[in-house]
Amino acid sequence: MRVFVTGASGFVGSAVVNELINAGHQVLGLTRSDSSAQKIINAGAEVHRGDLDDLKSLQQGAAGCEAVIHTGFNHDFSKFKANCEADRQVIGALAATLKGSDRPLIITSGIGLLNIGRTITEDDAPPVSSDVMPRVATEEAANAASDSGVKVHIVRLPPTTHGKGDHGFVPMIINIAKTKGESAYIGEGKNPWPAVHRLDAAVVYRLIAEQQPHQRVHHAVAEEGIPFKEIAEAIGQGLHLPTSTKSGKDAEEHFGWFTHFASLGCPASSAKTRQTLGWQPTQPGLLEDLATAS
Fold it and tell me: Fewer beta carbons under 10 A from the terminal one: N or C of the chain?
């Protein structure tokens, strides 16, 4: 199978590229820079020049492939809503190219969209308002594509998709702890964060591309929910810093714009995904990863 991958040199995308190639598939990876292109070539994939802002380039890449995996996203949180709306446009453009065919479009969403006070399953849908959570635009675009007849699959990633080279939420917490001189959690720190290793997540994307199941929403979740306090304690131990609890203004002063995410509690099940795809995570869990990280 020939697969077009956006974000092919990124943290998750590069793992997907390697997973596909190791399984015998051909990969066409989207990139806009020479350094990223070289990474894709070194992995054994072909390079397609372009970026997420060039919708025609995206459509050209998708047109010559049997499946599309969309992992690319601009994570500049200073313009988060604009980036989410841009993702809506990207998904629409890719869907328009695949419309009328049986070629699957596999897009990336987030478990954090559904902070609903109980364990989230693949059957749950995010809130309907993008004003509350801008990233819902991604799943709205996926649903619109599905309604138009495109074979769309959604992979929801947990708040922390970890592994070597991680530059996501956990490294942000680590940097905050370094800056503040202490590792913190909010209140009792019981709010659970689901987690998955990037290499385990990559397998989910590959299995969907190969099997193209009837199930549309998939959870790449290896650990259903780790209390945030345990994450903070592991970071404190690794940095040899004290761990403390924060609340109210103290929490906002410590975490800044990250306060919303530090208080997020979104335990998630992947039972249906495991049953449907036969997926079984094999990589280290988050706390083990933190204990062995440099």
Answer: C
